[in-house]
């Protein structure tokens, strides 16, 4: 499978990154194992998770996704050498001082993640959310210590805008600290503002890798949600409702038209559009079934025409 250089990390990644938020949440452990096996069998090689996944679910406290992923790695000898693992720190884990990007919490949190994952080193460690109470120097200094200790290989930032990312890059350069090499913005055919423009331009200028999250707009771009009635009983219903607008309807109509022309599913087209966007390295997408992973493979192989891309871009604008 074709791979792309992930900024200046030295890593390359297949065209789609697996979104591990579903592991232990909408996919139980057995199904998670089947889906992850299929993902690797299709030639994909990068998995994204976070310490906080899936604290939002009833009866969960965070760490569930990392734990399931760790058990899968342990049950598959040699698998660790075949996949790259991304995880994140900074979201509220519920305990005293267990959130944010302070040196104290990062130093403790990384050991918890390593333990749950059952691995010796994290390939890419993300600041999950900006922390206005902690300086870039403190956060990057903590990561510098972890890199030198062999606990993480490189770092990234999720949910940073252009100004915040530029300030962090300037701090890294001025103080000789590691810089954020990858960003993880919310970006899809519908949600465009957080990446397009200044952040996209900065990432291209600085050769920073980009892996997008909510790449399918919480499932809306699958085309299966057209009315509020379609959301009833769905675990992601609350996330999807905001897309049920006139623009959303127009976008789904065009997605369906383009998909029909390629004998494909709307989600496959939506992912193919993302992969074709300037500056995007790979979209993150979640799967809760083997069939969805097979759909990822179709998306990775799809070639949209210039007309397809223009129509989709205009419909989602």
TrEMBL record:
Pfam families linked: Aldo_ket_red
CDD domains hit by this protein: AKR_AKR9C1
UniProt-listed InterPro entries: AKR_Detox_Biosynth, NAD(P)_OxRdtase_dom_sf, NADP_OxRdtase_dom
GO-annotated cellular components: cytosol
Domain NADP-dependent oxidoreductase: 15-315
Name the record gives this protein: Aldo/keto reductase
């Amino acid at each position: 499978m074709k791979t792309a250089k992930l900024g200046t990390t030295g890593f390359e990644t297949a065209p789609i990154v697996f979104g591990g938020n579903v592991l232990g949440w909408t996919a139980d452990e057995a199904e998670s194992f089947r889906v992850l096996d299929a993902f690797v069998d299709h030639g994909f090689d990068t998995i994204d998770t976070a310490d906080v996944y899936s604290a939002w679910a009833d009866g969960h406290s965070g760490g569930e996704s990392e734990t399931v992923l760790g058990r899968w790695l342990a049950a598959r000898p040699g698998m660790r050498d075949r996949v790259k693992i991304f995880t994140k720190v900074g979201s509220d884990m519920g305990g005293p001082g267990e959130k944010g990007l302070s040196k104290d919490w990062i130093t403790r949190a990384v050991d918890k993640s390593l333990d749950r994952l059952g691995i010796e080193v994290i390939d890419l460690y993300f600041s999950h959310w900006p922390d206005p109470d902690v300086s870039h120097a403190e956060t990057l200094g903590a990561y510098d210590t972890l890199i030198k200790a062999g606990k993480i290989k490189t770092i990234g930032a999720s949910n940073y805008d252009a100004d915040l990312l530029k300030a962090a890059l300037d701090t890294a350069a001025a103080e000789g600290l590691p810089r954020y090499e990858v960003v993880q913005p919310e970006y899809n055919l519908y949600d465009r503002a957080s990446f397009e423009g200044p952040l996209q331009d900065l990432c291209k200028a600085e050769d920073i890798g980009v892996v997008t999250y909510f790449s399918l707009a919480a499932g809306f771009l699958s085309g299966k949600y057209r009315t509020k009635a379609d959301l009833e009983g769905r675990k992601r219903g609350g996330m999807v409702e905001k897309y049920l607008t006139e623009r959303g309807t127009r976008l789904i109509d065009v997605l369906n038209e383009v998909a029909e022309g390629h004998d494909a599913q709307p989600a496959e087209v939506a992912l193919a559009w993302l992969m074709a966007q300037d500056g995007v390295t790979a979209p993150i997408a979640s799967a809760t079934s083997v069939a969805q992973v097979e759909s990822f493979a179709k998306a990775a192989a799809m070639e949209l025409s210039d007309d397809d891309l223009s129509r989709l871009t205009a419909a989602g604008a």
